[in-house]
Amino acid sequence: MTRSKNLLVIMSDEHQSRALACAGHPFVKTPNLDRLAARGIRFTNAYTPSPICVPARAAFASGRYVHDIRLWDNAMPYTGDPRGWGHALQDMGVRVESIGKLHYRHEEDAAGFDVEHIPMQVANGVGMVWGSLRREDERVRKDGRMLGPYIGPGESTYTKYDTAVTEKAADWLRDAAGKGAPWCLYVGLVAPHFPLIVPQEYLDMYPPESLPEFKLHTKDGFRNHPWVDKQNEALLGDDGFESEAERRLAAACYFALCTFLDDNIGKIMQGLEDSGQLGNTTVIYTSDHGDNVGARGLWGKSNMYEESVAVPLIVAEPGGTAGTCATAASLLDVSETIIDHFGATLEGKRPGRSLYDITAAPEDPDRVVFSEYHAVGAVSAAYMLRKGDWKLIHYHGFAPELFNLAEDPEETINRADDPAARAALADLETELRRICDPAEMNDLAFADQDAMIARYGGREVAMNMGAPAATPPPEV
Q: What is the CATH number of the domain that holds 270?
């Protein structure tokens, strides 16, 4: 099938898959993404390969699982090795550039872009090394909450950065129209990632008192899984709020940032249309992972519940079919789609499949999608498998969780000990071991992190290396 000439890939940061009006969210306002979805395919069951920034983006860049590339956490950024979709396009002579957040190591690395415009990379080229100290007896708990000291109306370095990225992208698109050659542009926006600071005009759309109650909140007596409890001990999340009013303000700011993000996407899409290239450009929108936004008393990402591990995913081709696709998908499939779009090739075995092929085939209820987590706060590895209605969360050294998402989309009933779900549990555990040995990968991640910490000079040095929370953006 003939593809459109150009490809625009937009990736946000920490956008919960449900926080889209077109996905049925009861109050979030995302008119521009809704319009994009209305002329494309929205994947209703899409997931990140790891629910934290740096490993997710390294896996996306390379098209490989985190345990394959061994870039486990936010202190192990992508450097261009192994080669990824950007290199495949460069091999064909396709113009491929980036604008905005990458969260790789350094712009001097050959990471698969001809040019990286105002790139946001890991702090100081090393990232969050203190978060690699994960064992219970060695973990570091930073002073202050991960979400930042101030929550509320205003401008942050992140909102200013996204404004600059949006303006740069619109300018780039206008310039590209005059050159004629096919192109692939990757745009990385940081909203709705914390800090939870947003211009007042967006916050006014979400009065905190109008928001619903938090789901399964610990303040209401809910008890988290022991693995999640231990992880949460290392991160000052819900305990960092001074009042219920501030907690609700934080949620309001998150959803307001979703609308701020949507506004910027609208401006980029307007720039594409004004340049005369809308009719020959396919647009892919997704995010690196989600955000818990207070569900279960959790904030940020870093676990395997739907709020954190599921991502929005829209593919809009000019003149293409519009609708939804329920086949499970992953950011690794987006990698393959970029390669497929231009008819490029990339050596090496990769688990992804082009989204074009997925949507051309009948929906596949048995397709398996996998995610893993070996990063900050985790006392052991966590793995997620989605297959059909069932979802397994396998915690190394802890009891699993099993959910039937068709019957229980909010993941309120753990079916792992239910005799009626025994066959489903066994099936997903078998599928997990087809992908990796969970114990072996748990040990390998710790070994690689131990070796890195030793190279930096040991725990006392490592515990003070890296940004304490959100990565600072470049000056714009």
A: 3.40.720.10
